[in-house]
Amino acid sequence: MKTAPAIPLQPLDALAARRLIDTGGALLVDVRAPDEHARERIAGALSVPLEQLRSEAQAAGARLAGAPAVIFHCRSGQRTAMHAQALADCAPCQAYVLEGGLDGWKRAGLPVLRDASQPLELQRQVQIAAGSLVALGTALGAGVSPWFLLLPGFVGCGLVFAGVSGFCGLARLLVRMPWNRRAAAA
User: Fold this and answer.
1) Band of the pLDDT at 32, cuts 50, 70, 90?
2) Looking at residues 120-141, what average pLDDT do you find?
3) How many alpha carbons fall within 13 Å on the CB side of residue 154?
4) What CA–CA distance (Å, rounded) separates 122 from 158?
5) Which of 38, 43, 69, 162 sits a CA distance of 20 to 30 A from 26?
6) Average predicted confidence (pLDDT) for the chain
7) Burial of 51 (0-12, 13-18, 19+ CB in 10 A)
8) Segment 147-152 long-range contacts (CB within 8 Å, at least 24 positions apart)
9) For the residues 124-139, what does the mean pLDDT come to?
10) Packing angle between helix 122-143 and helix 150-165, nearest 10 degrees?
């Protein structure tokens, strides 16, 4: 038996979303990774990472059950737009996407909760570390020995491998760093 297709997500600007949330007419769901949510979030937003929504759609739908409507958001709106159908499929009610995501919320002058004690998001840590290694290897290759140019080449190959396979060795290494372990234990 075929099920009816989910209603596509409707865009909702930040001020309209705030009014709907404040009146109890919607549940706000943050689909970003837990480390992103821990560092900066909209008060009252339920953290249900996109990966969890996609892999455990039925269980995730149960967490959203009872809500009159659901508003999904990410950082900029790109993730929710890219995965709109999957998000709509797991919503047991009317579903919306917050236009501009968390960034749109802040542009509208609405408050967010920030916890600067939380480490930077793992993705940003990977970008900083990889960029630093490439810059260092290039500078040392130009000034000390061309053999140092192997370092940016190695990092580049690692990034390509991570993109193709979904396994990022640098991220696995960074997640074991003391600042990330302390945050996970909290």
Assistant:
1) very high
2) 92
3) 12
4) 16
5) 38
6) 87
7) exposed
8) none
9) 93
10) 150
Q: How confident is the model at residue 160 (pLDDT cuts 50, 70, 90)?
A: very high
* 165: Cα separation from own chain's centroid: 19
Other C-beta atoms closer than 10 Å to the C-beta of 145 total: 10
DSSP lists the bridge partners of residue 41 as 113
Domain 10-114: top CATH class? alpha beta
Contacts of 17 (CB under 8 A, 6+ apart): 26, 28, 71, 96, 98, 105
How far is C-alpha 78 from the geometric centre of its chain's CA atoms? Answer: 10
- Residues 53 and 86: beta-carbon distance below 8 Å: yes
Whether residue 20 has pLDDT greater than 90: yes
d(CA 93, CA 89): 10
Would you name the residues annotated as active-site residues?
74
* Number of Cα atoms under 13 Å in the Cβ half of residue 80: 28
d(CA 21, CA 27): 6
| Domain edges within the chain | 10-114, 122-185
Q: Determine what percent of the chain is predicted with pLDDT higher than 70.
A: 89
Residue 25 DSSP one-character state: S
Nearest of 85, 81, 76 to residue 11 by alpha carbon: 81
Q: Which residue has the tokens 């596509």?
A: 8
| CA atoms of 15 and 106, how far apart (whole Å) | 11
